[in-house]
Amino acid sequence: MTTANAYPVTQTIRTIGILGGGQLGMMLAEAAMPLGYQCVFLEDNADCPASLYGRVFHSEQLEAFIAAADVFTLEFENTPTATVEQLANLSTSGSKQGMFPPPIALDIAQDRLKEKQMFNALDIATVPFKAVNSEAELQQACSELGLPIVLKTSRGGYDGKGQFVIKQDSDIKAAWQDLKDAVSGKGELTPTPAPLIAEGFIHFSREVSIIAARGQNGQVRCYDLVENHHHQGVLAKTQAPAVGTSHLFKQATDAITTVMNHLGYVGVMALELFVTKDARGNDAVLANEIAPRVHNSGHWSIEGAVTSQFENHIRAVVNLPLGDTDNVHPAIMLNVLGQYPDISAVLAIDGAHYHSYHKAEREDRKIAHITLMPNDVADLEPALAKLVAVLPNKVGLDKKLASGVIDNQPKVTDHSAVIAADKTSKDSNDTVKNDNAIKDSQTKPVIEAKSKTEKAKK
């Protein structure tokens, strides 16, 4: 029996090598299959979610992994930069088709100080911050930024570790003693010597993010701004699009386009933002951090956008034209944390789409997500209430619903304490957030980033 060749004769890429095998790798593989591509994964957990869709190579099998793939990408930004550089060099030699995103994107994303310095160098506003290499510099940072501040390691740290909130002068010495080993690379916080970073506090009304894809030809396509809500530092809910943010869309698209062009980025990137006020009292955004990969706040796009973030990432990596990023229907995405719900109860809700990650249950672990997209937008909030009622872990949304808080009607919150959680998690894709609430008087005015190339278009 003769089988037909499944690939066009002009197609030189057949297999995509993905660094990491968590749920993001799984969903990338799901998006790659209809386009005719297979995926393999470099992941030390043989039973990872992505194992359902392709062969998993242990990190000690790096050479076999390289041999099995034609082009490379990643789903976890804490991938060692040395590995990414090795794969990027293979494309320079012509033996492979490329490594996307480029190593510089990981280098920036893995260093909070470099990340904020990059934003400011590109005229993208952030919270006020200072590098700290000594107790004397910490004293100076506290004086210049004003208390309270949060002191963090610029590299490493996870689940709130590697952070210290300094509320008064008497906290300074304790904060330095707690984190000083990171400056020399000693202790468990980070093996790489790096300065600490002191960040000031602002008031912000809400947290939003924007996701964009950039192709190998430099084309950028942006998704709608979405609003994110967190529970104990973990993303719990994303609303797409974020209600009442059309006036902020250009600021956000200019910022992410500028960053992607600056890095020569290829693939999908997320930019997390705070909505605050500029010096003139107008709504503006502050850049918090980038994620050089597909992102949790974009999961709604599988059903809710013309082209999902996962498909657009695959398209960029294999050098296909990017797809339309328009929102086809308002949606709410909820993360399922810790314990699986009754799938029958979930799917009994009109417009519910269930995505299991095939992970073992564990407290606060991301094990699935559910996207709500009822036909009638008026049914979105009632559907949310029904869904929260059947979730074992209600991620605090039951209290909001009971108190009558409607999440799509934002209110300004005077934050008096930092959310002591950080973006870097040792469990692939179980990522938590790095948020600060800081004094308005310390916030630098937002300067709209000016892209030197074609702006992202909806």
TrEMBL record:
According to UniProt, the reaction catalysed is: 5-amino-1-(5-phospho-beta-D-ribosyl)imidazole + hydrogencarbonate + ATP = 5-carboxyamino-1-(5-phospho-D-ribosyl)imidazole + ADP + phosphate + 2 H(+)
| Keyword Nucleotide-binding among UniProt keywords | yes
Q: Which domain of life is it from?
A: Bacteria
ATP-grasp domain ranges (all copies): 116-318
* Role noted for this protein: Catalyzes the ATP-dependent conversion of 5-aminoimidazole ribonucleotide (AIR) and HCO(3)(-) to N5-carboxyaminoimidazole ribonucleotide (N5-CAIR).
Give me the ranges of the annotated region Disordered.
Answer: 421-458
Q: Which UniProt keywords apply?
A: ATP-binding, Ligase, Nucleotide-binding, Purine biosynthesis
Q: In which pathway does it act?
A: Purine metabolism; IMP biosynthesis via de novo pathway; 5-amino-1-(5-phospho-D-ribosyl)imidazole-4-carboxylate from 5-amino-1-(5-phospho-D-ribosyl)imidazole (N5-CAIR route): step 1/2
Give the Enzyme Commission number: 6.3.4.18
Q: What is the protein name stated in its UniProt record?
A: N5-carboxyaminoimidazole ribonucleotide synthase
Q: Where is the composition biased (Basic and acidic residues)?
A: 423-458
- Tell me the enzyme class: ligase
Against PANTHER family, the record matches this protein to: PHOSPHORIBOSYLAMINOIMIDAZOLE CARBOXYLASE, PURINE BIOSYNTHESIS PROTEIN 6/7, PUR6/7
Alphabetical list of Gene3D superfamilies matching this protein: 3.40.50.20, ATP-grasp fold, A domain (3.30.1490.20), ATP-grasp fold, B domain (3.30.470.20)
Family designation: Belongs to the PurK/PurT family.
Sites binding ATP sit at 112, 152, 157-163, 199-202, 207, 230, 288-289
Fill in the subunit field for this protein: Homodimer.
Q: Which InterPro entries match?
A: ATP-grasp (IPR011761), ATP-grasp_carboxylate-amine (IPR003135), ATP_grasp_subdomain_1 (IPR013815), PreATP-grasp_dom_sf (IPR016185), PurK (IPR005875), PurK_C (IPR040686), PurT/PurK_preATP-grasp (IPR054350), Rudment_hybrid_motif (IPR011054)
Q: Which organism is it from?
A: Psychrobacter glaciei
